[in-house]
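Researcher: Structure for this, please.
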Amino acid sequence: MQTRLDFYTDKDAMKAMIGIETQIAKGTLDILLKELVRLRASQINGCAFCLDMHVIDARKAGESERRMATVAAWRETPFFSERERAALEWTESLTLVSQNHVPDAVWDVVRPHFTDAELVELTLLVTSINSWNRFAIAFRKMPS
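Model: Predicted structure, token format:
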């Protein structure tokens, strides 16, 4: 597969995307939680570039190989906290929004674990990684 287009050449679009990432970085969510969310959305979307990048980032932040290897099956493992499970549930539901429209049952699981501000931050994170996935997949950005 070959890269179709280097989307970084559109400086204004990338400035907007980086602005979102800057806002996410200012937030209060734990870095490991952020990387788990990025990994799970990228797995669902099949984004090799983002998976590669966020495995590296998660490893640098101290994430374990075991948790990274099992995040796709987080429901069947004891390796994730209730808060992380809630975030992963939210991530999956938002990533698959056209299929499920974020049902009340998901909200009921997620709500007790996050403040209002954290839910907005988590939602921005999920929408951001989904946007990055779409850029990378559409233009076939390759891991280096």
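Researcher: Any notable elements?
Model: The helical segments are 11-26, 31-45, 48-60, 65-70, 82-95, 97-100, 104-110, 116-138. The CA atoms of residues 24 and 124 lie 7 Å apart.
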